Automatic annotation (TrEMBL):
It holds the Pfam family YjbH. Residues 1-24 form the signal peptide. InterPro entries: YbjH (IPR010344). Keywords: Signal. This is YjbH domain-containing protein. It comes from Yoonia rhodophyticola.
C-alpha cells in the first residue's frame, strides 16, 4: 500500500549503505557535496579505489542531495543523484511541483599522477537528464607532499555560471524538451576556472577550501543559494574506515553538513566466511583405484543414493537423482544454500567420494534450479584426490573439468523429496516508488507473508499477502499527468490503499527443458501487484556459450486497485512481450537488450549493463526508450536507473542464496514499463553455466 510520504530519497539511498559501511576508502580521496570525489562543490581528478560504492547525502538550508557513486574501473566512475534545491518549505515535510532533480554523472581520469605531471580527468555532470546541474569539466589534481592535494579545472554549464568567459567552442544550446540527452550543449557556452586544495591533518581530520564558479539560478520565489562569496570552506572527519562526515561553509551564506558511507564489494566487512569446513576428499588406495566394478548385491544403488542424500542434506543441498555405473556416477542436485554453484559442486564432489564405490572414476555433477537441469560438470575422481591440497589446485581442476549439457532425466534413479513441500516466511518489506503519477516519492513499509508449495521440482505455486504499516491516504493519486496513456504504473499509490491485507501475487509456474540448450517457463495467475494473466518464455542458452537468446509473450489484464481478485476497475488488457539477447563479456560484465512492447502499449527497447562481482555483488545501469511522445511519456522522456544487489552473506559470512536488491530510477511512470514476473529464465539458468561457474570457481574447494 504505497503512501505518499514526502521523504527525501537521501534516506533510502544512504540507509542501504550504512549497515556495511566498513569498505576500504583511499585516505587521499574524499567525497564532495555532489557525492563524487572532490572538494566541496567542485570536482577533482582523484578516483576512489576501484569497485568502491559510496552513498553520500548533503544538506543545507536550501538543498538536499543524495548520491550513489560507483568506481567502475580504476579510472572511470559513475554517479546517480537525487537533488532538491529550494523546493522545500521544510526538507522533511513536503516538496513542490515535482521539481525533484535526478542526475547521472560520469568522470574519466586520463592518467595516474606522476612526479611532475598531475592526474587529469574529464567529467560530465547531470548529462543524462539535463537540468540545472548540467555541466562539463576538465580538471587536474597534484599532491604536494603527503598531506596536501591541489586541484584546478575548467568548467562549462553550471560550473561556469559565475565569473565565466566566452568559450572558443561556440554557444551553449539547451536540450528540449527537458530530460532528453543534449550533447550539442557539452563543452559549449561560457567557461570558468575553478580550483582549491585539501589538506589532511591526520588520518581522521582534514580541511578543504575552494574557489567555486557556481551561481545557483532562481527557483520558485528566490535564489536557491545566495552567493556573497565564491569561496567555500570545509572540514572532514572520518571516524572509521568507509565513513566520512563533513561540515562546510558555502558562498558566505550557508552552513552545510554531509555524510558519505563507502564500501568495496571486494572487501568483506567481517570475516571471510562462517560456513562449516567441507568434508575432506576420501582418497582411494591404489588397489581400489584399479577396481573395474562394484558389488551391487552388497551395496545396492538405492543404498548409495540414500547415504549420499543424507550427506548432502547437511550441506543444504537436495539430491534429486543418481545414475551409477561401474565407472561413472551422475549426480543431480539442487543447491539451496550456497550462492556460488561452483562451491556447491565442490561440496557435492567431496561428499560423493565418501560413499560412491571405488571403481567409479568419473563424477558428472548436474546442478538444477526450479526443477530444470542446468549443466553437466564432468570431473575425474583422481583429479579431486590429487589436487585438493595442492597449490594452484583450483585453476588445475577447472582446466581439467568438462562442461556440457545435462544428460537425460529418464536415465536417472530419482530420489524422493524429503520433508514438507510447503515453505513460508513472514518478514518486513520496504518499497520506494520514485516520482509516480502524483509527483511524490511513494514509500511503503509493512509485513509480507510469503508461501511456496512445490508440487514437483519444476511446478511451483507461490504467493504473497502484504499488510502495510502506514496509514491510507485520502487522495493517493492526485492529478493524472499523462491522461492519454494507460496508468500502468503511475497509479501505484492507489493500489492497496484501503488499510487491509492485500494479495501481492499468486502464481503457478512450470519450468521445463523442451530441447537441447532450450529452457521454458509458463506462469499463470496474479503475476505482480498491478497485473495478472499468463506469461510464457523460451530461452536458448548453451552451457558453454556467452550468448543467450530469449522470447517472452504475456497476455495480462490490469488488476483492481484493492488488490484482491478482480480486473473490472480499469478494464484494460494488453499483449506485451520482448525478444532478448544476453551476453557475458567475462570478468563479471553482463549486457542485456530487450526489444518489444511494454505494458502501456508502447514499443521500444531496454539496454542493461551489469557488473557482477565474484562475491555476488551486482551493480548495473539501464536505459529504456520507447515510441511514446514526450508529452505522453512525462517528465524524463525515457527511463533510466541504477540497480544494486547485495548478497546477504557479504555481511553475515553465513552461506545463503539470499540478497538485498534495490533500483534507483528517475521515475516510475507508464512509459517503458515492463511486467514484473518471477523466475525469468536467464537469471535461473546462468549460475550453472560455464561463464558464471568460471567466475566463482575459486570457491570450489571452500
Amino acid at each position: 500500500m504505497p503512501k505518499r510520504i514526502h521523504l527525501a530519497p537521501t534516506v533510502a539511498v544512504a540507509a542501504s549503505m550504512v549497515a556495511g559501511s566498513a569498505g576500504g576508502q583511499d585516505v587521499s580521496a574524499t567525497y564532495s557535496l555532489y557525492g563524487t570525489p572532490g572538494l566541496l562543490e567542485t570536482p577533482t581528478a582523484q578516483s576512489a579505489p576501484e569497485n568502491e560504492v559510496a552513498a553520500t547525502f548533503a544538506y543545507t538550508d536550501t538543498y538536499l542531495r543524495s548520491t550513489l557513486t560507483f568506481q567502475i574501473t580504476k579510472r572511470l566512475s559513475g554517479s546517480f543523484r537525487y537533488s532538491n534545491v529550494d523546493l522545500y518549505d521544510d526538507p522533511f515535510v513536503g516538496s513542490v511541483d515535482r521539481d525533484l532533480e535526478r542526475g547521472f554523472d560520469l568522470q574519466y581520469r586520463f592518467n595516474n599522477e606522476g612526479q611532475y605531471l598531475p592526474a587529469m580527468a574529464i567529467g560530465l555532470r547531470d548529462f543524462l537528464t539535463p537540468g540545472r546541474f548540467q555541466s562539463e569539466y576538465l580538471v587536474a589534481s597534484k599532491s604536494v607532499g603527503d598531506a596536501l592535494i591541489v586541484s584546478a579545472g575548467l568548467g562549462w554549464g553550471q560550473l561556469a555560471t559565475a565569473d565565466g568567459f566566452d568559450s572558443p567552442f561556440g554557444s551553449r544550446s539547451v536540450a528540449e524538451p527537458s530530460g532528453q540527452l543534449g550533447p550539442d550543449a557539452w563543452f559549449r557556452g561560457d567557461a570558468a576556472l575553478f580550483g582549491g586544495f585539501e589538506y589532511q591533518i591526520n588520518d581522521r581530520w582534514g580541511v578543504k577550501a575552494e574557489y567555486s564558479t557556481i551561481a545557483y539560478p532562481e527557483v520558485g520565489n528566490g535564489v536557491a543559494i545566495p552567493v556573497e562569496s565564491p569561496y567555500n570552506y570545509g572540514l572532514t572527519y572520518r571516524p572509521r574506515e568507509g565513513v566520512q562526515l563533513g561540515l562546510s561553509y558555502l558562498y558566505g551564506t550557508q552552513v552545510g553538513i554531509s555524510g558519505s558511507f563507502a564500501l568495496n564489494p571486494n572487501r568483506r566487512p567481517g570475516s571471510s566466511g562462517t560456513e562449516r569446513a567441507p568434508a575432506p576428499i576420501k582418497v582411494r588406495s591404489a588397489d581400489a583405484r584399479a577396481a573395474q566394478s562394484w558389488d551391487r548385491a552388497a551395496v545396492p544403488e538405492n543404498a548409495i543414493a540414500t547415504a549420499l542424500s543424507a550427506l548432502l542434506k547437511t550441506e543444504g543441498i537436495t539430491l534429486s537423482g543418481v545414475d551409477i555405473s561401474d565407472t561413472t556416477a551422475r549426480i543431480r542436485y539442487t543447491n539451496g544454500r550456497y550462492r556460488s554453484e561452483a562451491q556447491a559442486a565442490g561440496r557435492v564432489a567431496r561428499m560423493a567420494t565418501q560413499v560412491v564405490p571405488d571403481s567409479v572414476k568419473t563424477f558428472v555433477l548436474e546442478p538444477q534450479r526450479r526443477g530444470i537441469p542446468l549443466s553437466a560438470i564432468r570431473i575425474a575422481r583422481s583429479d579431486l584426490e590429487q589436487l585438493e591440497n595442492r597449490a594452484g589446485g583450483t585453476d588445475a581442476i577447472l582446466s581439467r573439468a568438462e562442461f556440457d549439457d545435462a544428460g537425460p532425466t529418464a536415465d536417472l534413479r530419482m530420489v524422493d523429496r524429503e520433508g514438507s513441500s510447503f515453505a513460508w516466511g513472514l518478514g518486513p518489506y520496504f518499497r520506494l516508488n520514485p516520482f509516480s503519477g502524483n509527483g511524490s516519492v511513494d514509500l511503503d513499509i509493512g509485513l509480507s507473508l510469503r508461501g511456496v508449495y512445490t508440487i514437483r521440482p519444476n511446478m511451483v505455486l507461490s504467493g504473497a499477502i502484504e499488510q502495510s504499516l502506514l496509514e491510507p491516504e485520502d487522495d493517493p493519486a492526485g492529478v493524472d499527468a499523462t491522461p492519454d496513456v494507460q496508468n500502468v504504473r503511475s497509479d501505484g499509490s492507489r493500489y492497496g490503499n484501503d488499510g487491509v491485507p492485500v494479495l501481492s501475487s499468486l502464481t503457478f509456474s512450470h519450468f521445463a527443458r523442451p530441447g537441447t540448450d532450450l529452457y521454458s517457463r509458463v506462469s499463470v495467475g496474479y503475476l505482480e501487484r498491478f497485473f495478472g494473466g499468463v506469461s510464457g518464455e523460451l530461452l536458448w542458452k548453451p552451457v558453454n556459450s556467452s550468448l543467450g537468446l530469449g522470447v517472452e509473450i504475456n497476455q495480462v489484464a490490469q488488476r483492481d486497485s484493492d488488490m484482491r481478485f478482480g480486473f473490472e476497475e480499469y478494464d484494460y488488457d494488453v499483449t506485451t512481450g520482448h525478444v532478448s539477447a544476453y551476453y557475458d563479456f567475462g570478468n563479471g560484465y553482463h549486457a542485456q537488450v530487450d526489444a518489444g512492447r511494454y505494458l502501456a502499449g508502447d514499443w521500444g527497447a531496454t539496454i542493461s549493463v551489469d557488473r557482477e562481482f565474484d562475491n555476488g555483488w551486482v551493480i548495473g545501469a539501464y536505459v529504456t526508450q520507447t515510441d511514446l511522445a514526450y508529452e505522453d511519456f512525462g517528465s524524463g522522456s525515457y527511463n533510466k536507473g541504477v540497480q544494486v544487489t547485495v548478497p546477504q552473506d557479504f555481511f553475515t559470512g553465513s552461506p545463503t542464496r539470499g540478497s538485498y536488491a534495490n533500483t534507483f530510477r528517475t521515475r516510475a511512470g507508464d512509459g517503458g514499463a515492463r511486467l514484473q514476473v518471477d523466475g525469468r529464465l536467464y537469471d535461473v539458468v546462468r549460475d550453472g553455466h560455464l561463464a558464471d561457474l568460471s567466475d566463482t570457481w575459486g570457491r570450489f574447494w571452500r
